[in-house]
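Rotation project, supervised by the postdoc (A.L.). Task for the rotation student: set up a whole-complex structure prediction and record inputs and outputs verbatim in this book. Inputs entered:
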Amino acid sequence: MSDPKIVKLLDESSNRSSELPLISGTLGPACIDIGTLYKDTGHFTYDPGYGSTASTKSAITYIDGDQGVLLYRGYPIEQLATNSSFLEVAYLLLNGELPKPAEFAAFEHDVSHHTMLHESLKNFFQGFHHDAHPMAMLAAAVASLSAFYHDDLSVDDPADRKLAAIRLIAKMPTIAAACYRYSVGWPLRYPRNNLEYVDRFLHMMFEVPSEPLQMNPVAAKALDLLFILHADHEQNASTSTVRLVGSTGANPYASIAAGITALWGPAHGGANEAVLKQLEEIGTPDNVESAILRAKDKNDSFRLMGFGHRVYKNFDPRAKIIREMCHKVLAELGVNDPLLDVAMKLEEAALKDDYFVERKLYPNVDFYSGIIYKALGIPTEMFTVMFAIARTAGWIAHWIEQHETPGSRIGRPRQIYTGSDVRDYMPTARR
Ligand code: ACO
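Outputs recorded:
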């Protein structure tokens, strides 16, 4: 992997220099290895938001933000979206290869047989206020898995790591559905292991004891697609959080719970909820123009939710796929949602507005996912929970990769200190 080329850096103030090797991956730009910079020159680097900094080597996901490319283990997202299933994608992310039939059957069996929650964990939900946000409940419930599976778990044992991955992928939908059912006052449902992953989740969400659930198969298909598109996205904020927590040796449940809390923010996974709330606020296509004007006004903190991306500066390939699915779901489920008219007008207006074009602000995956979730009857507060179910596959794949990488170190960034210079303590009476 190491490229013989080097970048020479001369610090003219001290006349100290450093020869920094370039490291190339399989795809993407080469990186300057600054590991010896401090030793050679006495300087740190400064990159708030990590716009130019690779935090790790990883073989899981590749993004080319300029070309709108997203690959999971080398496979283009478009091909996986058309041909694969979420569970197969989860296997791929974890294991690096698509499964042979017997491997997939074993994986599906394992995931199906770890879907139940400990009965004591179910009691946790009773402790939440009735209107607790489901993301708060999800983060707490996943962190609490540490209390059930911590003692006999060694993060250094590959078999234990694999078991933790299976448990998390299996239990996440059960916990997510429990969050929803508690909030609406329905009895929690046990998972039906004869159903496939997404169907099982939809039954846990919506089936009531008094009557069987009739689900349109298009709902499961759409949800499976959304889960595939959200399964991983290399070193985004929540995955980096999982890795940072994981770098301390923390157990996988604590690490993933931290990822969930990072995902919750509106600049990240919380954007899908924010998109829908914003579309509702805009209300009708006639108000789109004034929303665009507000988004462009530098004295107004208002931003168009679901537009822009730190990495995709051309088009989010997931948004392209999901846009098509969005129309299909609304047509097949017979949903005539006026919010879609607002969304389409907003998309059209932003795509031809100089402000958005110049800054390369295109609709991202969250712009359309909220509309699909709404059409499936999933409440707005649950949108980011849906994202978390899918992203668990990526988070745990990264956590495992981190533990499989020899020489991994605790994550510990530096800073530029801007506080007071050294000063002496002043007794209270003399201040
Ligand atoms: N609406 C209006 N203006 C915007 C928007 C937006 N949604 N996004 C960025 N801008 C403007 C900024 O004001 C800035 O303008 P300036 O150059 O005149 O100062 C310029 O575009 C660059 O913006 P940054 O904030 O520097 O871009 P960054 O890459 O740091 O942020 C982010 C990316 C957080 C996604 C941002 O575009 C945003 O807040 N979008 C809305 C929230 C959203 O949809 N988040 C979901 C991300 S996808 C995901 O997590 C799955």
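Student's summary: The beta strands are 2-11, 16-23, 31-32, 61-64, 69-72, 75-76.
Supervisor addendum: The first strand starts at residue 2 and ends at 11.
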